[in-house]
Write a structure and sequence with these properties.
Blueprint: E1 7-10, H1 34-41, H2 43-54, E2 61-65, H3 71-79, E3 84-89, H4 92-105, E4 109-113, E5 126-132, H5 143-153, E6 154-165, H6 180-183, H7 185-194, H8 198-205, E7 209-219, E8 222-230
Parallel strand pairs: 1-4, 2-3, 2-5, 3-4, 5-6
Antiparallel strand pairs: 6-8, 7-8
Helix pairs in contact: 2-3
């Protein structure tokens, strides 16, 4: 008799701890279409490249930061045996959708409602942090705290691998004049902060070492960067 894998959704946020956030699609009304849009625009292929670059090993404990509807978390749990994967995101409707998908796929996962600037995990408890197209959603005032939290939860020798817009040597023009409005003003500061190695500087500023762009690409007319770093 087969058993159903454990899929958990944790929402311990107090009402006064919930702050405004930008949902995965930029608009709450578009959430039902997010996974279809991800497939059509090629985001799913970039997720696969992110996981391949991360070098996650069997048995690793993995945090998917800004997991949205859980696509990267599901990919890791499905393809790398024995991984213990937690997805973190402030968007409760997106997390509910991620939970349903994990249950249908019979993949053990934990999803937690929370923010990157206050990751609800113990110190040195994670082997790898991955994040896909999420950090440009983080308000400018919370970016340093988010990077510091990533460094805190990583074990010594642990790694972080990030996919987002921006990259090495790319000026603001590389995001495309028509691209910023697609995200709205809430994301514009985060997108601009990513250019010219902004993510590399962010991770290095949090005390992580060997921070560098490991790959690049394009998506819907904008530059993509894949950035990695490790905890000494």
């Amino acid at each position: 008799m087969s058993t159903t894998p454990d899929v958990t959704l944790v929402d311990d946020l107090a009402d006064d701890a919930v702050t405004p956030y930008l949902p995965p699609t930029g608009r709450v009304s578009l959430l039902p279409f997010y996974d279809v849009l991800s497939a059509v625009t090629g985001v799913r292929r970039r997720h696969a490249r992110l996981v391949g670059l991360a070098g996650i090993r069997a048995g690793d404990r993995v945090l998917d930061l800004g997991c949205g509807t859980g696509n990267v978390a599901l990919l890791v749990a499905r393809t790398i045996p024995g991984t213990v994967v937690t997805g973190l995101d402030p968007d409760l409707p997106a997390l509910r959708r991620a939970t349903r998908k994990a249950r249908r796929a019979r993949v053990p996962l934990t999803f937690v409602r929370g923010y990157g600037q206050a990751i609800p995990l113990p110190d040195a408890s994670v082997d790898h942090v991955v994040s896909a197209l999420a950090l440009h959603h983080v308000p400018e005032g919370d970016r340093d705290a988010t990077a510091e939290e990533v460094a805190r939860v990583l074990r010594p020798g642990g790694r972080v691998t990030i996919l987002d817009f921006g990259g090495h040597g790319h000026g603001g023009h590389s995001l495309g004049r028509s691209h910023l409005p697609r995200f709205g003003a809430a994301a514009a500061d985060g997108l601009r902060a990513n250019v010219d190695d902004g993510l590399v500087r962010l991770l290095a500023g949090a005390g992580l070492v060997d921070a560098r762009e490991v790959a690049s690409g394009r998506l819907i007319g904008a530059d993509l960067t894949f950035v990695g770093a490790r905890k000494a």
